[in-house]
UniProtKB/TrEMBL annotation:
Molecular-function annotations in GO: transmembrane transporter activity
Name of this chain's protein: Major facilitator superfamily protein
UniProt cross-references to InterPro entries, sorted A to Z: MFS, MFS_dom, MFS_trans_sf
Membrane-related topology note: Multi-pass membrane protein
Keywords: Cell membrane, Membrane, Transmembrane, Transmembrane helix, Transport
Length: 144
């Protein structure tokens, strides 16, 4: 996981130096989601340590790009007087859902192999990003 964190760090460092053009933000967002899905699907099927390290690094780079674009889109869409409430609600939601997700993953992990769970999870994530790529409303929000 340290490789993933290093990838995130490098990704944010790159994003602080370069500026993504407005018309390319949606493409970067969708490609980041698709790359995250693909790297994790490949991860679920391999045991090669070096390949996993490379996949996690790529995953970290894409997480940084996707997270940055989501954060800036939320900041652009939410009125200034509501931002603190929206971000507090988002953080509360993340915090509240984490134990529920861990509980579900634990119960599934007892019944199904973890690599199958990871594969299925990121296959759904991939389908979601392919679907999002066709929504003009998402493109409009991300490209703000």
């Amino acid at each position: 996981m340290a490789v993933n964190t290093f990838g995130i760090f490098i990704g944010y460092a790159i994003l602080s130096v370069i500026e993504i053009k407005k018309e390319k933000k949606f493409f970067v967002f969708i490609m980041s989601g698709i790359l995250i899905s693909c790297t994790m699907i490949i991860y679920s099927m391999t045991l090669n340590f070096y390949l996993i390290a490379v996949l996690f690094f790529i995953d970290g780079l894409c997480l940084a790009a996707m997270g940055s674009l989501l954060q800036t889109s939320i900041q652009s869409c939410v009125p200034p007087n509501m931002r603190s409430k929206v971000f507090a609600f988002r953080n509360t939601l993340y915090t509240a859902l984490m134990p529920i997700g861990m509980m579900i993953a634990g119960m599934l992990g007892e019944k199904i192999q973890m690599n199958i769970i990871i594969f299925a999870d990121y296959a759904v994530f991939l389908m979601l990003f392919i679907y999002l790529s066709f929504l003009s409303s998402v493109k409009k929000i991300i490209n703000i």
